[in-house]
Amino acid sequence: MVEMAAVSGLIAVGCRVTTLGIVTTPGVAIMTEHLAAQGGMVITASHNPIIWNGIKSLRFDGVAPTSEQAQQIINRFKNDDVDYAPVERLVPHEQNDSTHSLHVDRVLAHVEVQAIRQRKLKVVLDSVHGAGGPVTAMLLRQLGADVVHLYAQPTGRFPHTPEPTRENLTELCDAVLQHKADVGFAQDPDADRLAVVDNKGRYIGEEYTLVLAALHLLQKHGNPPGAVLAANLSTSRMIDDIAAAAGASVVRTSVGEANVAAAIREHRCLVGGEGNGGVIWPKVIHVRDSVAGIGLLMELLSQRDESLSSIVDQIPAYAIVKDKVDIQPGMAGRCVSALKEHFADQKIDLQDGVRIDWPDRWVHVRPSNTEPILRIIAEATDAAVSKQTIEEIKQVVGI
Questions:
Q1: Which single residue of 12, 130, 286, 343 has CA 20 to 30 Å from 138?
Q2: Active-site residue numbers?
Q3: Is residue 250 classed exposed, middle or buried when 0-12, 13-18 and 19+ CB atoms within 10 A define those classes?
Q4: Residue 275, exposed/middle/buried by CB under 10 A (0-12, 13-18, 19+)?
Q5: What is the reported pTM?
Q6: What are the structural domains of the chain?
Q7: Model confidence over 347-361: pLDDT tens digits?
Q8: What average pLDDT does the chain have?
Q9: What distance in Å separates the CA atoms of residue 248 and residue 239, rounded to the nearest whole number?
Q10: 354-381 residue pLDDT tens
């Protein structure tokens, strides 16, 4: 229903529209770039409940619009600012069914396919009846994996709460143990996020997805001098540890996929992403892509003579705690100013709210763009210290 309405609206203003069917969000980005389109549009509500749907716009290069560009789109919608085309310029839409094969080909072009095939890795994949099932199965077949595929068909009828978090993936963890698999992968419904379960059936979490991808790419390229990675301010400092060990650096950005993608381009990063399981591998496309992430982690496992659990255990571990508090409209700026003043002797980043770094912990406090709340994310080596840090923040801002 939403797709037909969107197609009709685009045709009405003179656009030549190509529909792709049920594909992933990164797949739409790849096709937008491949077809040299002026923009892309994804009908998705990602992991939200079935009553919701949404329209995600992409630029000509497949990247999400910046906040300023997104606001221009929203303003035109709110103001009913539409320039309808005369009937002579209306063009019927076309259908293109090549998204999955093109997506897989892009990933395969940049991994050691034969080496992965020789390992004959066993994989349990939970696609949650979302858009990622067909394309990911296609990739794993090409990589010679033995696949146990849970909820493969893209019906949109989620068998469990679809956000790929620990509490929602107990079945995947059990299946990895039952089938003695090397790894378990979980995608969200539009397949831009990836969570990982190790060979012991342990949910290692979304924060590790980017870290493992970065670890692999740095080693694959011989830890090149001056290598740069990108991550937003709310992403675990594990990425900093991985970079430091390899002589690389990390560029931190405001929260938002478009901000990370812009940093990747500006600094020519090997990889970047967000701690929600979003890996952006620029060789494939400049958006979060679970399919590319799976390709990278399959290559990592094929080139290591050790299990995923062993690799993970060698990475310094931290405890992230996330909280949010209600504030009155207009209080966000005062809260940020109070924190900046109180913690003036610490390392402070003001790109997006305020992030404060101590030698052993950090906290990121940012106002929501959509509702009167402050989001507070803290990370330390111990969960109790993370929680204590959040309470300290609340006391400073008087909440």
A1: 286
A2: 46
A3: buried
A4: buried
A5: 0.94
A6: 2-97 (3.40.120.10), 319-397 (3.30.310.50)
A7: 999 999 999 999 999
A8: 95
A9: 10
A10: 999 999 999 999 987 767 888 999 999 9
